[in-house]
Structures are given as C-alpha cells and as structure tokens.
C-alpha cells in the first residue's frame, strides 16, 4: 500500500515540477510566484473535492453519489444569480472576492446546517431521506436561478454565465489564505472522527452494533462535507464529476477498505488529474477548451460506466 502511495506521490510531484518550470524562459522572479499561487489553489481544491466525496460515499454507502446531490452547487449559483438580479453585477459583493467568498460559503453552510437540523431532529431519520430532500431543494434553487437569469440584462447574464462553470485557469488566488486557514481548522476538527470511517463503510446497522454513535458522527461528517464543498465551489466554481472520478479510481487502484490510504490516494489522484489536465489544456490544446469541460466529459462517461456496471452486478 505504501508503494502505491509513493508512486502516486512521485507522479504528482513530477507533474507539479513540470508545471512550475515549463517555458519559464529564465524569468523565475516573475513566473514562479504566479504559478505557485495557482498550483497551491489547484492542490487545495483537488484535495478538498477528493476528501469530501470519499467521506460522502462512505457514509451513504454508495459510490455513484457526490455531495452535489444535496444541492450545494445549485445553491451557490442561486446566491450568485440572486445578488446580480437584485444589486447588479457591479455591486461590491461581486466585485470583492473575499466578500463574495464569505457570503457564498456562509450561505451554503447555513443551508446545510438548517437542513441537517430539521431532518435529524428525530432520532433514526434515514440519511437517504436527507438526500431526497437535498435533491428536491437543489432542483428548486436551479429553477429559481434559471427564472432570474432569463429576466436580467444580457450583459449581466454573461457575468452569471462566467460563474456557472469551474475555471482552473482563473483561480481566485486571493482567497488562498482564508481557504487554507479554514481547511486546516476543519482537518484538526475532523481528525478525531477519521477512525470511524472504516466501520461506517460496513453500513448503518453494523456500525451501530459495533458501538459507533451513528447519528452523532454522521451529523459531524455532513457539516464537514458542506464546509469543504462550499470552499471548493467558491474557489473555482461548481464542478460535478471530479469527486466521483477520483474517489472511484482511488477505490480501484488502492483496493483497500482503510480510509487513511483511500483519502490520501484519492487526494493524490485528484492533484494528478488537475495538474496533468491543466498541462494538456495549456501546452497541447492551447486553451482551445477548458479543464472543467474535459473533467466533466470524462467523469460523465465514467458515471455511465459505473451505472452499467452496478446494473449488471
């Protein structure tokens, strides 16, 4: 297992080194600081998406689900569209990335907190009921966003459209310090619960029989997932299939139930996919397409493969 982690680490470090040094032309003082900020943002985003999806799939016992099913991506777009619809695209909440980040993240975490508080009010509430409610609310947010988008000025719709897709070529690097501080705080909080993931992967009944305080632990994991997804979405925009792709590839490659290896492996695969994909987009395809389009295309095809595979099983 350590050999696999080592191999993934070597590939990830090699790709990062190539990204940092390729075509620098000797202008290290100019090139390195800018590329370093971009690569840090990509690594942070990749690790966040991999962690949140792996935890989400474990607590739901379903490998074709991602946290986006509870409607956080749709809520992000609803918040962005609502602000432009009411205040216009030149309002300071949109012009200032830090203010926009706090509003978006705060809104998504507040929504997740209210959803969990309401649905877990009674003991023994099924987590699939929460997913169903999240799916319905996500559809509601998406419909409201579309309604406002057809009413706003076409020029302002272009601003909304710019935020509808994840952009790894225009990462909000000025949010790096805030994001890193939040993620480090969450990881310190999350560390005490990581030991439960291996048992939770056995299912709800088995976990309860083995003495896990199921509802208590699940609530904490869901809050952690909501915060991580909020940070990733606010940093680069909504991206649907990356988590699905890297979490399932980690399961297939690592072939273990131990989450200390699965979490690390999925994070490294995510970094390899993003940095390698970005190199291809920039150096091979000459920006003729975007990384999010490639990730969503490959992820979509892989999603169909997983559905067909599960159907045959």
TrEMBL record:
<keyword id="KW-1003">Cell membrane</keyword>
<feature type="transmembrane region" description="Helical">
    <location>
        <begin position="261"/>
        <end position="281"/>
    </location>
</feature>
<keyword id="KW-0408">Iron</keyword>
<keyword id="KW-1133">Transmembrane helix</keyword>
<feature type="transmembrane region" description="Helical">
    <location>
        <begin position="99"/>
        <end position="120"/>
    </location>
</feature>
<protein>
    <submittedName>
        <fullName>Iron ABC transporter permease</fullName>
    </submittedName>
</protein>
<feature type="transmembrane region" description="Helical">
    <location>
        <begin position="65"/>
        <end position="87"/>
    </location>
</feature>
<keyword id="KW-0472">Membrane</keyword>
<dbReference type="GO" id="GO:0033214">
    <property type="term" value="P:siderophore-iron import into cell"/>
</dbReference>
<dbReference type="GO" id="GO:0022857">
    <property type="term" value="F:transmembrane transporter activity"/>
</dbReference>
<dbReference type="InterPro" id="IPR037294">
    <property type="entry name" value="ABC_BtuC-like"/>
</dbReference>
<feature type="transmembrane region" description="Helical">
    <location>
        <begin position="287"/>
        <end position="308"/>
    </location>
</feature>
<feature type="transmembrane region" description="Helical">
    <location>
        <begin position="39"/>
        <end position="59"/>
    </location>
</feature>
<feature type="transmembrane region" description="Helical">
    <location>
        <begin position="6"/>
        <end position="27"/>
    </location>
</feature>
<dbReference type="GO" id="GO:0005886">
    <property type="term" value="C:plasma membrane"/>
</dbReference>
<dbReference type="InterPro" id="IPR000522">
    <property type="entry name" value="ABC_transptr_permease_BtuC"/>
</dbReference>
<keyword id="KW-0812">Transmembrane</keyword>
<keyword id="KW-0406">Ion transport</keyword>
<feature type="transmembrane region" description="Helical">
    <location>
        <begin position="173"/>
        <end position="194"/>
    </location>
</feature>
<feature type="transmembrane region" description="Helical">
    <location>
        <begin position="126"/>
        <end position="152"/>
    </location>
</feature>
<feature type="transmembrane region" description="Helical">
    <location>
        <begin position="221"/>
        <end position="249"/>
    </location>
</feature>
<keyword id="KW-0813">Transport</keyword>
<dbReference type="Pfam" id="PF01032">
    <property type="entry name" value="FecCD"/>
</dbReference>
<keyword id="KW-0410">Iron transport</keyword>
<comment type="similarity">
    <text>Belongs to the binding-protein-dependent transport system permease family. FecCD subfamily.</text>
</comment>
């Amino acid at each position: 297992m350590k050999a696999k982690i080592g191999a993934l680490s070597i590939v990830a470090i090699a790709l990062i080194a190539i990204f940092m040094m390729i075509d620098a032309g000797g202008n290290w003082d100019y090139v390195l600081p800018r590329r370093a900020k971009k690569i840090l943002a990509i690594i942070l985003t990749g690790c966040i998406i991999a962690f949140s999806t792996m935890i989400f799939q474990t607590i739901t016992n379903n490998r074709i689900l991602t946290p986006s099913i509870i409607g956080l991506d749709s809520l992000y777009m609803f918040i962005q569209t609502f602000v432009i619809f009411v205040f216009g695209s030149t309002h300071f909440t949109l012009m200032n990335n830090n203010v926009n980040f706090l509003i978006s993240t705060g809104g998504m975490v507040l929504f997740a907190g209210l959803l969990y508080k309401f649905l877990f009010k009674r003991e023994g509430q099924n987590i699939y009921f929460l997913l169903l409610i999240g799916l319905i609310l996500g559809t509601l947010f998406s419909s409201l966003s579309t309604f406002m988008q057809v009413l706003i000025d076409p020029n302002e719709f272009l601003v909304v459209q710019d935020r509808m897709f994840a952009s790894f070529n225009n990462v909000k690097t000025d949010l790096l310090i805030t994001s890193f501080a939040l993620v480090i705080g969450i990881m310190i909080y999350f560390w005490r619960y990581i030991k439960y993931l291996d048992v939770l992967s056995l299912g709800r009944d088995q976990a309860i029989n083995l003495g896990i305080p199921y509802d208590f632990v699940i609530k904490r994991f869901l809050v952690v997932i909501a915060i991580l997804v909020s940070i990733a979405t606010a940093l680069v925009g909504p991206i649907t299939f990356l988590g699905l792709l890297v979490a399932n590839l980690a399961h297939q490659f690592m072939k273990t139930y131990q989450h200390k290896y699965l979490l690390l492996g999925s994070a490294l695969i995510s970094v390899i996919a993003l940095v390698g994909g970005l190199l291809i987009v920039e150096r091979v395809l000459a920006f003729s397409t975007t990384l999010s389009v490639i990730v969503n295309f490959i992820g979509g095809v892989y999603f169909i493969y997983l559905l067909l595979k599960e159907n045959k099983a």
